[in-house]
Each structure stands twice: as structure tokens, then as C-alpha cells.
């Protein structure tokens, strides 16, 4: 992994986030992050650490900036015209936002699963094989077969698809498609999996299956999940971050956030008075 020189970032106060935004031995260290869409600011001076093997949930009312903030973690805001990110965003030693950072290996390290399952218009096998092939992770077909099988197993889908790997990915149910997208993400050996409302298009049974999977995956990956479901945040995460109008209001152990929030805005949201 290439280490790029540090971007010099002006030193600013860390914002007014309450709770436990900073931890030791972080996977991500984000400092003074601002995001603008043209001249409209969407994220205001957010500073936060995320731990290795942590599941971090991000919650807050619609439009508060959760997706915008999540997209900072693997430079997906680059794909939006007029979107500008500033601040220091470090993935361990690497400055994510540095102009010399190559987004292709970055996005292999930091994979993403979207709201709506989006398999490629290819076979189940090819959906998973595509990433390892383009990243040159395997050279022989037998190795590729192995990566495909292992990834589908880790995504909890292997038993359901092993006899029809040549069927189109889109022939699967919504929940299976989402697990296929998770398998596709895992196949390139990421360190982090970002999930933006991964269950919002799924029924309760498929949702429960994805939540079980998150618990299993958290043994090997850092997971950051945006969810509009407070129950889901409570079930799957170690810490929860509450956003309001582009500001990070509170971050704390999930149980604390839901039983004894420290800020009146967090309390208003979790008790259903806002959002
Ligand atoms: P959330 O995911 O919490 O619902 P978003 O990150 O999608 O919130 O949006 C945060 C703010 O940024 C909102 O005011 C939204 O309208 C604005 N926004 C999001 N995407 C764009 C975009 N592509 N162009 C301009 N404004 C955007
Ligand atoms: Mg969103």
C-alpha cells in the first residue's frame, strides 16, 4: 500500500459532538469534514473515529447527511458533479481525500452495498468473479472458483445458488440479490464494508438474514451502516452516530444512545418526536 504525503489541514475545533467520537487504534480517523453540493453545505465539521471490527450505525432524519457522509469513506462523492469534500479523512495510514489517492484500490479496501440490490446483468458466478478478475487477485480458474465459493459462503448464499451459478444474478429474490452484492463486495477482500440502508428494499425475513450476516461479518470487517430503522441500529451496531441537519450531534455505545441519550435532539429522534 502506498503511503502518500499528509495533506496539511488547518486546525479547527472538533465540533460539539457529545459522547465517544474518538477511540484508540481507529480504522478511520475523520477530522473536520465538510461536504458541499455546489455552494450548499451538507456536512458541517464532523470529526469521528471508527474502530477495527466495529459495527457503526449512522442514524438521523431523512436529509440529515448520512449518505453524503458515508460516501466520503470511499470517495463515492467524486461521482457527483459539484460535490466537494474537505477535511482529513484517514483510513489507517492513507489520506482518503488526497488527490494522489487512487480510488480503485481504495474502493477495493472500502466496499459498498447500496440501498437497492444492484447485481450486474451477468450470471451469479460472474457477479462475484468480476472484482477479483479486474483487480488481478487470481490467475487460475480454479482459484477464481474458490474465491467465488468462499465469498458466496461468507455472504450466506452458497447453499441457495451452488447448483445455478450460471443463472442471471437478477433471477434471485431481492434478499438473495442483496447477499449476492455482499458476496461481490467480499470477493475483493475489503477491510471495510459500507452499507447504505441495505435492507430498505427487503422484507422482514430477508432483513433478518442480512442482520445475522452483519453480525458474522463484523468478526472480519469494519462495518459502517446507515439505517432509517432504529431497531436495526440497536440490533446490529456497537456504536451509533446521530446526525441532524448535517451535524454529528452524538456518538456513543448503541445501548447508551437508545436508553440514555445525551442530547435532546437524539432523544427527540429516538422517541419519535422528530424524523
Ligand atoms: P440522508 O442520507 O441522511 O437522507 P443525504 O446525504 O442524502 O441525506 O442528503 C443530505 C443533504 O444533501 C440534503 O439536503 C440533500 O438534499 C442534499 N443532497 C444530497 N445529494 C445531493 C446531490 N446530489 N446534489 C445536491 N444536494 C444533494
Ligand atoms: Mg440516504
List the helices and strands and how they pair.
Layout: E1 18-19, E2 26-37, E3 40-51, E4 55-59, H1 66-72, E5 83-91, E6 94-95, H2 103-109, E7 110-113, H3 124-134, H4 141-154, H5 158-161, H6 174-186, E8 192-196, H7 204-217, E9 222-226, H8 230-236, E10 239-244, E11 247-253, H9 254-259, H10 264-270
Parallel strand pairs: 1-11, 4-9, 4-10, 7-8, 8-9
Antiparallel strand pairs: 2-3, 2-5, 5-6, 10-11
Helix pairs in contact: 3-4, 3-6, 4-6, 6-7
The protein binds adenosine-5'-diphosphate and magnesium ion.
Adenosine-5'-diphosphate binds at residues 37, 42, 60, 62-68, 80.
Label this structure with key terms.
275 residues; alpha/beta; Rossmann fold; 7-stranded mixed β-sheet; 4-stranded antiparallel β-sheet; 10 helices; 33% helix; binds adenosine-5'-diphosphate; binds magnesium ion
Structural account:
The structure is a single chain. The protein has 275 residues and is of the alpha/beta class. The chain has a domain at 9-117 and 192-270: 3-Layer(aba) Sandwich (Rossmann fold). It has helices spanning 66-72, 103-109, 124-134, 141-154, 158-161, 174-186, 204-217, 230-236, 254-259, 264-270, and strands at 18-19, 26-37, 40-51, 55-59, 83-91, 94-95, 110-113, 192-196, 222-226, 239-244, 247-253. Strands 1-11-10-4-9-8-7 form a 7-stranded mixed β-sheet, with helices on both faces. Strands 3-2-5-6 form a 4-stranded antiparallel β-sheet, with helices on one face. Strand 2 and strand 3 form a beta hairpin. The mean pLDDT is 94. Bound molecules: adenosine-5'-diphosphate and magnesium ion.
Amino acid at each position: 500500500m502506498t503511503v502518500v504525503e499528509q495533506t496539511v489541514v488547518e486546525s479547527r475545533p472538533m465540533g460539539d459532538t457529545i459522547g465517544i467520537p474518538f477511540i484508540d487504534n481507529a480504522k478511520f480517523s475523520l477530522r473536520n469534514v465538510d461536504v458541499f453540493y455546489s455552494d450548499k453545505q451538507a456536512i458541517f465539521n464532523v470529526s469521528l473515529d471508527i474502530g477495527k471490527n466495529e459495527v457503526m450505525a449512522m442514524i438521523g432524519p431523512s436529509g440529515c447527511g448520512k449518505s453524503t457522509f458515508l460516501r466520503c469513506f470511499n470517495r463515492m462523492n467524486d461521482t457527483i458533479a459539484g460535490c466537494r469534500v474537505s477535511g482529513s479523512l484517514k483510513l489507517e495510514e492513507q489520506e482518503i481525500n488526497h488527490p494522489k489517492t487512487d480510488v480503485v484500490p481504495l474502493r477495493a479496501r472500502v466496499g459498498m452495498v447500496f440501498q437497492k440490490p444492484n447485481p450486474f446483468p451477468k450470471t451469479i458466478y460472474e457477479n462475484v468473479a468480476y472484482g477479483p478478475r479486474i483487480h488481478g487477485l487470481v490467475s487460475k480458474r480454479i482459484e477464481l472458483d474458490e474465491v467465488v465459493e468462499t465469498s458466496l459462503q461468507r455472504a450466506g448464499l452458497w447453499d441457495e445458488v451452488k447448483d445455478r451459478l450460471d443463472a442471471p444474478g437478477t433471477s434471485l429474490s431481492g434478499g438473495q440479490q442483496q447477499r449476492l452484492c455482499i458476496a461481490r463486495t467480499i470477493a475483493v477482500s475489503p477491510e471495510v464494508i459500507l452499507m447504505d440502508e441495505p435492507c430498505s428494499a427487503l422484507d422482514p425475513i430477508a432483513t433478518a438474514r442480512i442482520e445475522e450476516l452483519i453480525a458474522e461479518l463484523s468478526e472480519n470487517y469494519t462495518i459502517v451502516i446507515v439505517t432509517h430503522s432504529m431497531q436495526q441500529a440497536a440490533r446490529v451496531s456497537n456504536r451509533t452516530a446521530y446526525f441532524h441537519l448535517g451535524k454529528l450531534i452524538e456518538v456513543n455505545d448503541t445501548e447508551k444512545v437508545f436508553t440514555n441519550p445525551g442530547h435532546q435532539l437524539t432523544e427527540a429522534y429516538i422517541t419519535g418526536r422528530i424524523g
